[in-house]
Amino acid sequence: MNSSMRASLFITCxxxxxxxxxxxxxxxxxxxxxxxxxxxxxxxxxxxxxxxTGFRGEAFSQAKRFIKLYVDTExxxxxxxxxxxxxxxxxxxxxxxxxxxxxxxxxxALLPRVFELSEFLxxxxxxxxxxxxxxxxxxxxASCHGLRALHLGDRPLRLLKRVRGLELANLENLDRCxxxxxxFSVKNAEVSSAMLTTKLxxxxxxxxxxxxxxxxxxxxxxxxxxxxxxxxxxxxxMAEILASTETTVAEARA
Amino acid sequence: xxxxxxxxxxxxxxxxxGVVEDGAGRSASLKRDYRQHGTLDAEKKIALLIERLHExxxxxxxxxxxxxxxxIAAQIARSGRRVLVAPSGLPAAWLxxxxxxxxxxxxxxxxxxxxxxxxxxxxxxxxxxxxIVLHHSPSEGRRVLTLLPDWHLCVLRTRDVVETLPxxxxxxxxxxxxxxxxxGPSATADIEMTRIKGVHGPRFxxxxxxxxxx
Amino acid sequence: MSAPAQHPILDPAAAPPFPAAALPVLRNAQxxxxxxxxxDVIQGKRNRLVAEKTDWxxxxxxxxxxxxxxxxxxxxxxxxxxxxxxxxxxxxxxAADAGEARxxxxxxxxxxxxxxxxxxxxxxxxxxxxxxxxxxxxxxxYETDLAEIIxxxxxxxxxxxxxxxxxxxxxxxxxxxxxxxNLPELSDDPQALTAAARTYLRxxxxxxxxxxxxxxxxxxxxxxxxxxESEGNGRMCLTLPRTxxxxxxxxxxxxxxRDLEVMLQVLARSATGERMNPYTSLWxxxxxxxxxxxxxxxxxxxxxxxxxxxxxxxxxxxxxRCGACMNTCPVYRQTGGHAYGSVYPGPIGAxxxxxxxxxxxxxxxxxxxxxxxxxxxxxxxxxxxxxxxIDLRAQVTEKERAEDRRFFDxxxxxxxxxxxxxxxxxxxxxxxxxxxxxxxxFTRKDGWIHAxxxxxxxxxxxxxxxxxxxxTFREWWAKERGR
Lengths: 254, 214, 483
Description:
The structure holds 3 protein chains of 3 kinds.
Chain A (H helix, E strand, L loop, with lengths): L5 E4 L3 H6 L1 H13 L3 E4 L8 H6 L2 H15 L5 E3 L2 H18 L2 H10 L3 E3 H8 L12 E4 L3 H6 L5 H7 L5 E3 L14 H4 L1 H17 L4 E4 L2 H13 L5 E4 H6 L11
Parallel strand pairs in A: 1-2, 1-3, 3-4, 5-6, 5-7, 7-8
Chain B lengths: L4 H11 L26 H14 L3 E6 L3 H12 L3 E4 L13 E4 L5 H6 L2 E4 L3 E3 L4 E4 L16 E7 L3 E2 L2 H7 L6 E5 L4 E2 L7 E2 L6 E8 L3
Parallel strand pairs in B: 1-12, 2-3, 2-4, 4-7, 5-8, 7-12
Antiparallel strand pairs in B: 5-6, 6-9, 10-11
Chain C lengths: L17 H9 L2 H24 L3 H17 L1 H14 L2 E6 L2 H14 L4 E4 L3 H5 L2 H7 L3 E4 L2 H8 L16 H11 L9 H18 L2 E4 L3 E3 L4 E6 L3 H7 L3 E7 L3 E2 L5 H13 L6 E6 L9 E7 L10 H4 L9 H5 L1 H6 L10 H11 L17 H5 L6 H17 L8 H13 L2 H16 L7 E2 L6 H5 L4 E2 L6 H9 L2
Parallel strand pairs in C: 1-10, 2-3, 2-4, 4-7, 5-8, 7-10
Antiparallel strand pairs in C: 5-6, 6-9, 11-12
């Protein structure tokens, strides 16, 4: 393990506001693994919401902000698959359309240093056993972006399998979307809800105590429905599970 | 020709930037890393073809060249069919006794429709997908012959069996003017995805495999 | 209870917006069950057969390359097809739009003095709304594909490009056939239903002298046409009539005969989960003594050429209509095809229809997706559907934001404000605090928000939202790490 590794934590806009425990967990986890973590308060948003809703002009400004802010970092770690997918799949088009040579250069240099959390752990730190302890039955929901855009493959499961005390419950139809889709969830609220209901049936069938994922957007969607249905199951970002040890319990609230 | 040829062509050329390059023919140089050639030995290739044919309920009989007429006769007898049509170029030896043959010298659709079956040769077979290829040569018959009768007996020689679809295309010195690839009997799954055999085409396919590859 | 049956509108100019069109389906439990069952079955078969194909990735790569190459040289390949088809005895017509295509086809039928015509399933003819037009002009069109018969006799519309009646179950088919074919004793066994259709059509095949088909592929090298099918109704229509008319979009051309070795392999596996379709027919112009002696091809533009300019949009035309994207789409699974208000439903429809409509209609379709990416994963010609959806959303937004009425649209206001906020960390911090204060009003004692006004209410109609925590991450960081 590289103990001198430095990483800059990018906390997605709504995670910062709604799910601060995810960010805290990533800090705890990475520091425990010997990474020097920094956070740049100038950060705001990656621009995904704007881009995916059709506000391309606005997405340009967020992309520029992001690139300029992190150009000098050793690594950027993002505990949110869809934001990483935004940067990998959509930034190239946006940046080349802007036609700014120095921005292009900065972006090309930065891109290989942007990591989703499980990628950072497994590909960069080369660690599967992060020394976590989480004595609960847990099911893993693969977010669409993690699965099909980032091709995370079995990385998340490899990490979970090494968590002591954790009992992994298999989720049927793992590759099926939960119906969140950002503004889709309000623009097509009824269809989104129908998709959520279908997903929830599979999630509930696992009889897990926790449903985890690498993206709080899916978890906000699933968690919102679980709460509405008075279900006992709760959602928890994987960073919190991986940050938990025998001495520190997960902050999982609500 | 009618309609807006020039208008459509102009729009296409405008869309593609007005550049008229000679692209035709270059498609040959596109990347083709898929499986072109089979890897099975002759025996396994034939076994695969038979397995595929059985998967879609085709009947398969094997024989050596000298036994072919007898095998055709036996298959006809087994099928219980009598009135059969035959393409004009079908080898005379295949017009076996025991059937009422109507050789296709300009048979009408109604006459073909009355027949209970048809016997033809074939261009080749593709083991991988269980496909029978007809190029509608004089021994394979015009298309309607293998369409209206409910039972199709098709003779296929093992030397004409290839393993992969690309191998069939490689065998075509010239693209055929007409072709029919049969990979199963007429079927539908339009009602609740339940597979039902025999909608319009022949409901029964019987293949006689002639072992002629040594 | 099922919602009362409504006749689906597949004319994008008249169809309601997607979210509204989806509502009656979401309330129709039977229809959703039919759609889920059918798509599960096809997708299962497709996945098994793709998994067994060791060279699937390479085939897909080649299929995509062939289609992309063809589109880049579309004019040349169409000219080559026209030349070869004409040499072989066919007559090639060019239709700039739907109206012209309809007129060309009607004129051919009138020259043949036809008052009846048999048809092979063709989505392109549904695109130009051919059947009602022919009817108005004294020609009855008879569909011959089993699914299309179900729809035609049931006065319904297609909801899928490969299995157009997948939303109808056997009991409903029985009811339609019993009523329209006058068979009160008919059972709902698919075998019996199929037999009824066979009998119903047999005489028609043998007597109607004109036929209309679509095309899976037009082969530039030979001037030939290829059609794949399962039932044999296609072969009947291609072989028995005196006159044959093929209607095909200009994008249907492929360069060479040999390209079929790729296209047929990917199409069958993707469309129906078979190694090869039961029947593939290939014919070239007119062959003396075999099949129709009069053959016409109508090449239809109808908005396609306008999609060639940008590579982003052009990739849409690579589509080979296999329907794999609909079978895997979690949105289609809930809504079926009619909600898309077009003969082209599902993810491909969501990008194709708005472009064919030059974004004058169907503007809600690019938003009819959660961008989950499952469609791109299965597409045999690698159309990056999510990427095109996002591009079209940007085009729709560009168009809409010029309209005054959009200025106060909550989503537009929200996006403008968010952009202003995200441009500065200071503003973002203030906005976080404002949101915390504002949402406190709606947060219950359990710490959750159960109901929100306005756009937020679209969320809380089925989902709660956790109340905002007392401390944002950046506040925690500033406090703990002192910066």
